[in-house]
Amino acid sequence: MADKPQSQTPVIQSAQLGVTAEAGHREEAYRNSFGGRLFLVVDSVPEMQRAMGMTLSSFGAEKVEYANRASDALSKMGRYDFDVILCDYDLGNGYDGLYLFEEVKERNLIKQSCVFMIVTGERRSQRVISAAELAPDDYLLKPFSGEMLSQRLSKAMRKRTAFRPIDEAILRNEYLAAIEICNRKIAERGEFTLDFMKIKGSLSLRIGDFDTARSLYMEVLRLKDVPWAKLGLAKALTGLKSHDEARMLFEEVLADNDRIMEAYDWLARLHRDGGDLVRAQALLQKATDLSPVVIRRQKQLAEVAFMNNDLPVAEFACSETLEIAKYTWHRSPNHYAMLARVQLAQGETGNASRTLGRLRRDFRYNQAGEWMADVIDSQVQVHSGNGVRAEQLLKDAETRFEVLVDGLDAEAQMEFARACYAQHKTQLGDRVMRDLVRNHHDDESMLARLGTLFDEVGRGDAGRQLIAENVQGVVDMNNLAVKDAQSGAYEAAIERFARALTEMPSNIQIMLNLVNATMAYVHRNGWHESYMRRASELLMKVREVAPTNNKFQKQMQSWRLLTEKLGKPHWGL
């Protein structure tokens, strides 16, 4: 393959890796196991790549890709469907294999059946490697023999092959089906029972079924005291709003092993939601010191430090976020906006102007990026005393906002609202915030963030009233439509939900309620082509933006049963 080293020197490289790739390891059994698999070797040292390639080839591996850096590995994972990833622990520049594994899992870049194995010469790294909630499948200490590698891989691959049906269900976004597969495998009490319990717990958390997750993790802990089950139970308790119990469990997890990074994130979130921003910042600071290249964590640290008015820490975390995200899919105009906002808060107008220049350069010809640049520029002009120019920039941004709004995420819209409030465009800011509330009326985390923004711009009381009134307005409208549906007036319910969706085009609950009312109508009255076409389009939209929504998962099952019952299997999603 293109990235595979062209020259290989078996004797030298095998000796360097400590591999004894003897002829006996070329047996047909190995070739049958490894011949059709796609491998990725991640190592910053070309000689190590070649040595590993030779070892893999000695027991039948034919398809091997290579990556020198984490960014290369992430790029290749985005293009290829790997079966096995062998990753060196030390990738250079402060980036190690565990950080890569964390990002890979966060971005869902590998399938459940892919084997991810860490290769290391550091015996002391075992504790670190074992700390991940979804730990790597194995770690291999250098030096090792080809036979040792093949045996460890065979076992890991056999286990991962058992997960393939789950992969296929997840690829179809059928999380309930994947959980049902786990249930069957757990009931069999086979070799990998604990692994299927781990997957079931993770999937249950993902779709917000916290009761199932809690029961599962408690059952695991009765069998064996494992960190991932204790961490999972703490997450489930957080979802169930048992915050004190969750906090104690997260603290226990970290007391047992201070390298379980997710525990810092969740514990910081609990402290942040509880108003203890100092403690939240301290936890995130420690976590970023231990694992500095995780974008999400740096961004959270920047937000909390800004709320704490610790502007130097906020600026550093913003800069780190921007630098780490620069060459990844995480790259966003929002990162530039946040850095510029922190710089302006410190009176660093020149630095904010330079950040603005980077945004204009990096997002040239990108409509959302250019729009965000004007929003930031309007703020820079305010701080520079150019009120007329600031007003013109904001006015132009308002005009384009109406066109771009459906493609802008909530964070970008909130940045626009900040600029509006800062320039005394209160009605415009309130309109943007009202639409955000109405489109996310049942998202407690988003509503909390909107409340924080109101506090930030000095509109705390008015903002809380705006949030409460608009949440209640959506709930009341929804209840009227549900009452129509319950009384059998399905067409009235459909019409009411459709009108609501026109006003709140990004509201997931309204979309799903419209789909539900449509299916109820079709159950009673028979197939309705235009109704069902609209419903299928809405389900596809939800699958794109919120595939793990619990209600969506149940509706997908109902949709499939309905379309099959009515002889319309081609309408199945």
UniProtKB/TrEMBL annotation:
**Domain named Response regulatory: residues:** 38-157
The entry lists its GO molecular-function terms as: phosphorelay response regulator activity; transcription cis-regulatory region binding
Q: One GO BP annotation here?
A: regulation of DNA-templated transcription
4-aspartylphosphate: residues carrying this PTM: D88
InterPro entries per UniProt:
CheY-like_superfamily, Sig_transdc_resp-reg_receiver, TPR-like_helical_dom_sf, WalR-like
Top-level division of the source organism's lineage: Bacteria
- Provide this UniProt record's keywords sorted from A to Z: DNA-binding, Phosphoprotein, Transcription, Transcription regulation, Two-component regulatory system
Q: What is this protein called in UniProt?
A: Response regulator receiver domain-containing protein
Annotated organism of origin: Paludibacterium purpuratum
